[in-house]
Amino acid sequence: MLHKCHVIVGGENLIDRVQKKSIKGNSESVDSLGGSPYNVAVALARQKVKTSYITPISLDSYGIKLAYNLNQEGVKIASKRNYKPTTMAIVSLNDGIPSYAFQRKNTAERLVSISSIKVSIPADATHLHVGSLAFAGGSDADAWEFSFHEAFKNGLSTSLDPNIRETLIENSDTFRERFKRLLKSTNILKLSNEDLSWIYPGRTQQNAINQLQSQTSAELIVLTKGAEGAECWTSEFHVVMPNHKNIKMLDTIGAGDTFMATMLAFCISSKLLLPGSIKAPDENQINCLLKRCITAALLNCSKIGCDPPTHEAINNADEE
Asked: What's the predicted TM-score (pTM) here?
């Protein structure tokens, strides 16, 4: 366990109800534990990172399963639980690519405030990761934004993954402005090419990246591009990494979350992640980071649903 860094994770936990065709061609649904930050917390723990989860979890039957799984994975539940229902995500797969419809009104994971987040953060926390639906809108989004800035001001390093779910964003202009404010308190930024296109509509990728770099304090920016691999920017380097393994992909659920967690685990193990900042990686370190993150994401995609690989599994795959 990499105890020198204690990562705290905030953002939604939910049940993914995946709609798919059975072998006989009938429609069926399978319930899985999920939520982007929830998946990141699990993936971090599997890579031997000390991790706490600070979003409320319901005390309903689904919440019991969500909490039990975190306990089994070694993630500390640091937030107070409540009796509001668990958020549901109805997931439809088209050639393994998921689309989502959410039932998220008045659910347990949204019952947060500035004070409840503050008391949930452990005293030895060194890094805060928040993303996805946490910033979609409402008073909970305001609380998460305030807490993210406060953590940065108080000396924690931070990471952000917007993981855009357009149908749940209450106001697109408000979200874009919030995202730009969050960029000023971010050390590590991960986003997909779809996220980038949505946040900076009508721009080329390079133009959008230039705009992004001018607006953020992030020392490490990574863009994931699905089947095309990933790119990374620092103040000194730009590295492009294609997907490098031929793995049979069953679906892409949780691939980005696995990638995000692997980024953090790599930065911790490489001693790049420092209190309040990230040490500038050299070009070789960036290549190693992207290779490892892509490997981890592809391993996740070789299974049904989000099932992040362990530290050992990634090592073994990298050696093949």
From this structure: 0.93
